[in-house]
Amino acid sequence: MYCGFFLTCKKNFFMVSSVRRGAEILRLAIGRQWRTMLQVWLKRNPIETGYRCNGFEEHMLPKGKVGLREIAEAAKVSIATASRVLNGNGRVDAEIQKVVLAEARKLGIDPSQRYKSKTLAFLLSNRAMLHAFHSRILSGAEAQCTVRGWDMVFLSYHYSPQTPWNELHLPRVIARRDLIRGVILAGTNSANLLRLLRDKEIIFSVLGNNVMGERAELEKCDAVYADDIQGGLDATQHLLRLGHRHVWFVGNDRLPWFARLLKGYRRAMGEANLAARESSVDSEDDTECGYLGTKSLLARGEEVTAIVAGNDQIAGGVYKALRDKGLSVPEDIAVVGCDDTVGMWLYPALSTTREFPEQLGKNLVDAVLRRIEDPDQPPQSVTVPTEFIRRDSCARPSESREELAHEVMHSSPIS
């Protein structure tokens, strides 16, 4: 904590160690030969004087104006405590913080304007820092911050969804509201972290597709979604229009982003009066998930002419499993992916659903800035549309190909 006397103008800031010392310096300055220069400067630069405590300024205003002392008295706390609360010091009890902020609003002080920092934090939870999809979300968020005149810092954070919300330990900088005005949550998140941030009244937006656990908590938050339900529907309908009837889904239905894609797949199969069939592997390694899921359905002798993969990395695993069995893409089995991160680098190039991660990042930033401007607005939900991209991994099934696939799948078991 520091307390100082200061003079402010548009381009200058002076601070000395104490109010008494400040008065002494001014008195000495006036008594010296450069008093005239100081008087000229004061005429040209309108100033205001006041106190600064931990960054919160209490200006020496005329009687009837509200300052830090009045807020502290109304909240029945010390001036130091009121100062800490108004500067976002997380070490003050949450209930005391609520009381101080409420009294400040009653006195006509907008607490949301007390911070001068224009910095957001991008918090990547439970994911590798070089993850192809989330790194592009970060790129879009950073670009939008630049456009809006804000800065962004990147933080990596790992936590368990089983940890009670009040036992989670946030990165310390997140609690420094004088430094960080809002948080963007990407990666894989759970309801416990959302509850903690809401309880601490930290402004944030979250990538809704990737929130695990209770949906009720997510509905109370500002969230941005990729429309992967529609993406799964579009990809499956593309295969159905080509004439495929034995279409399988390969992914991990325990993870929410795959579950949403699966929902779109099931809707398309239901509308075509076909049975939805899936091969789900509980693995967080996407390539492994695609490989094992495909080998499993082939080993069981299932009829399959097309596969909807949960994402492009899973599709890469599907490709490998098919080649191990001697099957070709798309001659024997058609494959589609989702997210368009690495599909263009696969051979043959993968038909996939593009999810526009840079646009997700842009909308996450905009959601936080809207919340900063209007803290009392109801929760926001924004959905970014998807686009199906046709490449070389799909073809029409023919009787000869279906017979060949049937024969291969009923040949010797896969070891």
Classify the helix fraction into a percent range: 40-55%
Number of helices: 14
What structural category arises from helix and sheet content? alpha/beta
Q: Please summarize the sheet with the most strands.
A: 6 strands, parallel
| CATH fold name of the largest domain | Rossmann fold
Under CATH at level 1, the class of the largest domain stands as Alpha Beta
- Assigned CATH architecture of the largest domain: 3-Layer(aba) Sandwich
What sort of overall outline do the alpha carbons produce when their principal axes are compared? elongated
The overall pLDDT average reads 83
Describe this structure in words.
- The chain has helices at 19-30, 35-44, 68-75, 79-86, 94-106, 132-148, 191-199, 215-218, 228-241, 256-271, 286-299, 312-324, 357-373, 399-409, and strands spanning 3-8, 13-16, 48-53, 56-59, 119-125, 151-157, 182-187, 189-190, 204-207, 211-212, 222-226, 247-251, 277-280, 306-309, 334-339, 351-354, 381-384, 387-389.
- Residues 1-35 and 45-63 have low confidence and may be disordered.
- The chain is an alpha/beta fold.
- Helix 6 (132-148) links the parallel strand 5 (119-125) and strand 6.
- It folds into three domains: 1-53, no CATH class; 119-227 and 359-386, Rossmann fold; 228-355 and 389-409, 3-Layer(aba) Sandwich (Rossmann fold), CATH 3.40.50.
- It is elongated, with a radius of gyration of 29 Å.
- The longest helix has 17 residues, at 132-148.
- Strands 6-5-7-9-11-17 form a six-stranded parallel β-sheet, covered by helices on one side.
